[in-house]
Amino acid sequence: MNYDMMNNNRLSLTGTISSPVTFTHEVLGESFFETTIEVKRLSGMTDVIPLTISDRLMCDAPLAEGEEVTVEGQFRSHNKTVGDKSKLLLTAFARDVIRPALVGVDPNSLEVCGYICKPPIYRVTPFNREICDVLLAVNRAYNKSDYIPCILWGRSARYAKELGVGTKVSMKGRVQSRKYTKTMPDGEIEERTAYEFSVNRFRVEERVDGSYSINGGVNFS
């Protein structure tokens, strides 16, 4: 997994447009729209992922709910202020839309290269499954960065928990959605959806002390 500044965040999703396409904002005369794409897992479950798309990619025909497409682009983040708090929002950002959808490709693939920007959080579930949460800062053009929550499992989790802030890593896996409930101050229970990068392979590219991994790094699965 080798990356440069223009190629350090590569996302490919193949699935079904699962909500209406709605206008959200305009930048320098370019209009952007939001929808969701439903991507099936091998298990039969589905991930429903927010999708941001420019009108320039829909000049031939707008996306339609129920349409099957392949989207290639990036997994991006942005902060939204809600009250006095800032919330990190994640979305698939389309750079290309292929219609009809490609057949025989990995329906959900994300490859990134970035820097660990918070101490990893390691835990063991009640079912004795090892998990490590890592927040990765991935640089993009115009001095911007995307902050991507990553989740690693098993042996990868045990290894990642020892990595320091500033370590450069490359990762490969898939984007997943996960529903959970949160109890509000008034006692009301809200159902929410979290989006994260489930990692199945990663390697250390450069450690905090400036050293590099032997033989370009080791993949963990």
Helix and strand layout, with pairings?
Layout (H helix, E strand, L loop, with lengths): L8 E9 L4 E6 L2 E11 L5 E9 L13 E15 L2 E14 L9 E9 L4 E4 L5 E11 L3 E10 H7 L7 E16 L5 E18 L15
Parallel strand pairs: 4-6, 10-12
Antiparallel strand pairs: 1-3, 1-5, 1-7, 2-3, 3-4, 5-6, 7-9, 7-11, 8-9, 9-10, 11-12
Structural summary, described in words:
This protein is mostly beta strands and 221 residues long. It has 2 domains: 9-109, Nucleic acid-binding proteins (OB fold (Dihydrolipoamide Acetyltransferase, E2P)); 111-208, Beta Barrel (OB fold (Dihydrolipoamide Acetyltransferase, E2P)). 3% of the residues lie in helices and 60% in strands. It has one helix at 154-160, and strands at 9-17, 22-27, 30-40, 46-54, 68-82, 85-98, 108-116, 121-124, 130-140, 144-153, 168-183, 189-206. Strands 1, 2, 3, 4, 5, 6, 7, 8, 9, 10, 11 and 12 form a 12-stranded mixed beta sheet that branches. Residues 214-221 have low confidence and may be disordered.
Task: Kindly report the oligomeric state of this protein.
Answer: single chain
SSE pattern: EEEEEEEEEEHEE
Q: How many beta-strand runs?
A: 12
Coarse structural class: mainly beta
Count up the domains.
2
Spell out the CATH superfamily of the largest domain.
Answer: Nucleic acid-binding proteins
Mean pLDDT: 89
Low-confidence stretches: 214-221
User: N- to C-terminal separation?
Assistant: 14 Å
Shape field: globular
